[in-house]
Design brief:
single chain, alpha+beta, four-stranded antiparallel sheet, about 625 residues, 11 helices
């Protein structure tokens, strides 16, 4: 779901793709170069004004769209791209986060919707990591969250022409949730209890005075989280839509923050459920995610009726209800590229230029593992029979999951003759709270147990050639790749790790403050407090056991998986003469530049083909 009307639009690290040959542009590169757009975010009080992200120029940037006239213009233009932007509720201003070369440390700037020079949005606030932003309907007030190593999390009320006023401070991680329709209430998420995986909620007056608190981590034996989904879009309405985990999965409820009344919606759906308000406040747009697919509903708050919003089979990665009652949503499946669609019919945004080729459908596999049934998604070349060279592409997060959605990376591997297996290991979202929380204290090792179980299935079923198995992933998936190569040295033929955690102790000391809090939660303390846990979960501990060739790519400005800890791991590989290649690039946690991504993927596919000893026929991409 989108966070709320007026919230920012974001594009995460793009999927990896494969390499092509000479001559005509291969399908995998067409998928990468094809113009892509995010779900447009629209201004609450000016719904014809919208903001979206696109790679139309070859770099992901923010775009303004006047829906009344159809006019679109590029808002930002930076060498390493821009994806973090917020449209003010009155539609007059576009706020965007200005960092340096992807390091995520910077300041908010703003630009008039119609165009004009950028200006510092919050004079008086120094650079920091962002910790949320909410803009009021009065056009002059913002609530700005900041995170730094020195201060932890601070939250300010900033008004045009006035000095910012601090309204919250704590060493643990926190973030801005939303500001009420009349601007009188501010909701924040915080982890003052020290559990960065399960937030509590607090509602403040604009001067920082507490109004209400909701904390599901207190008084019970279970660790339950809460999240802000948004205040009701109605003047004088104090209802706050929140997410909770009281029945073992994410579900929405309505909390009146003045009276304390909680309204349980009783949606009775088996998977995780998120929601946002319809613009008139009478209903909720509900997204239900279950077993790697999603569906939409309209829930009527007065009657309790639930009506399905028709969408094709696949995954909805964002949805919003418009003032006319229609719903716009970003949809895709493994076989069909993403598109912004509307329940009124047709495609909402249809960028001109190269069309992305489709790919093959995904197949569902369930494997019994040490912690329960594991869901895996499998793709393979059309008509191919095993055993095939097989790529285990491991998702990041870890609190994320692979779904039946379009991804250029798996499609590229399939084009080159590989089967692709994606595993929603313990730690993944979408399979209940217990599954997501299971990896505590044995971080990395638990996920790899599940990956190993699916690996055994892939070989035993005849899908995978055991002599040609690739372990790969980005971010947390890159971490699991390096950890797997060291702890399961005979299981994998080669590994390809993008922006990985490689040396957990050094990564902890160098990473952004919010991730330090997450690591303390996952491992139960700092490296000094629980050194044994950090050691057993660090790829560096096992680097001398690695047998397979290793390819690593890393951004030199990465605040999440910093470069120094990658260099420590590489030096150990070099010292023992281990087969490896390293590619460093000038960006942060992944690149927003299409050509740079294509370059990286060509290197990855070439590394795999080289070390798997493909014949000439096998190394020729299929479907090109």
């Amino acid at each position: 779901m989108t966070e709320s009307n007026g919230s920012g639009v974001r594009v995460g690290r793009a999927e990896q793709a494969g390499r092509g040959g000479g001559g005509e542009t291969p399908d995998w590169e067409k998928r990468f170069r094809a113009p892509r757009v995010s779900l447009p975010d629209w201004a609450e009080d000016a719904p014809d004004r919208a903001l979206f992200v696109s790679n139309a120029t070859g770099t992901y940037e923010l775009y303004a769209w006047d829906r009344a006239t159809g006019a679109q213009r590029q808002v930002t233009d930076r060498p390493n791209g821009t994806t973090d932007g917020v449209l003010s509720p009155d539609g007059e201003w576009i706020w965007w986060f200005d960092d340096k070369d992807g390091d995520e440390y910077g300041v908010w700037r703003r630009q008039p919707f119609a165009g004009g020079p950028d200006e510092l949005a919050t004079p008086g606030l120094e650079a920091s990591y962002p910790a949320g932003l909410a803009l009021a309907r009065d056009g002059v007030t913002a609530v700005v969250g900041r995170s730094t190593d020195e201060d932890g999390t601070t939250i300010y009320r900033a008004r045009t022409g006035e000095d910012p006023v601090e309204i919250y401070r704590h060493r643990e991680s926190a973030g801005v949730g939303d500001i009420s329709h009349d601007g009188s209430l501010i909701a924040i998420e915080h982890t003052e209890h020290g559990d960065a995986m399960h937030s509590a909620l607090r509602v403040l007056r604009p001067d920082g005075t507490p109004v209400a608190e909701l904390d599901d981590t207190r008084g019970g034996t279970e660790e339950l989280g809460l999240e802000v989904l948004g205040f009701a879009p109605v003047e004088g309405d104090h209802r706050l839509l929140i997410g909770h985990q009281r029945r073992g999965r994410w579900e929405p409820l309505v909390w009146d923050v003045v009276t304390g009344e909680e309204t349980d919606l009783g949606l009775d759906l088996p998977g995780d459920v998120g929601a946002e308000w319809y613009p008139d406040g009478t209903g909720l747009l509900v997204v239900h995610s279950f077993e790697a697919r999603s569906e939409l509903f309209r829930f009527d708050l007065a009657t309790g009726a639930r009506e399905r919003v028709p969408t094709p089979a696949g995954s909805v990665s964002g949805a919003t209800a418009r003032p006319d009652g229609s719903v716009e949503y970003l949809w895709s499946s493994a076989a069909e590229p993403s598109a912004v669609r509307s329940t009124t019919g047709g495609v909402v945004l249809d960028p001109p230029g190269l069309r992305s080729p489709g790919s093959v459908p995904v197949e569902d596999v369930w494997v019994q593992g040490p912690g329960g049934r594991i869901h895996a998604l499998v793709q393979k070349p059309a008509g191919a029979t095993g055993p095939l060279p097989t790529v285990f592409e491991i998702h990041g997060g870890p609190t994320w999951h692979d779904s039946d959605s379009f991804a250029a990376g798996p499609a590229a591997w399939v084009d080159h003759g590989y089967a692709v297996v994606r595993v929603n290991y313990r730690g993944s979202t979408g399979y209940g709270r217990a599954w997501t929380d299971a990896l505590k204290y044995r971080v990395g090792l638990i996920e790899l147990e599940d990956i190993a179980a699916v690996r055994e299935w892939a070989i035993g079923s005849g899908l995978a050639d055991p002599s040609r198995l690739v372990l790969t992933g980005g971010s947390w998936g890159g971490y699991l790749t390096l950890l797997g190569l060291g702890t399961q040295p005979d299981a994998w033929t080669l590994g390809i790790a993008a922006v990985p955690v490689a040396d957990y102790v050094t990564a902890y000391h160098d990473e952004m403050e919010a991730l330090k809090a997450m690591d303390r939660t996952l491992l139960g303390g700092t490296p000094e407090e629980v050194p044994d846990r950090f050691e057993v979960s660090s790829p560096l501990t096992y680097v001398d056991q690695v047998k397979a060739p290793v390819y690593i790519s890393a951004g030199v400005n990465d605040p999440r998986c910093p470069i120094r800890q990658v260099d420590n791991y590489v030096k150990r590989l070099e010292a023992r003469g281990a087969t490896h290649e390293v590619y460093r690039y000038d960006a942060g946690h992944g690149s927003l530049v299409v050509d740079e991504r294509i370059k990286q993927v060509k290197l990855e596919l070439a590394f795999a083909a080289k070390h798997l000893q493909f014949s000439e026929a096998e190394s020729s991409p299929s479907g090109v």
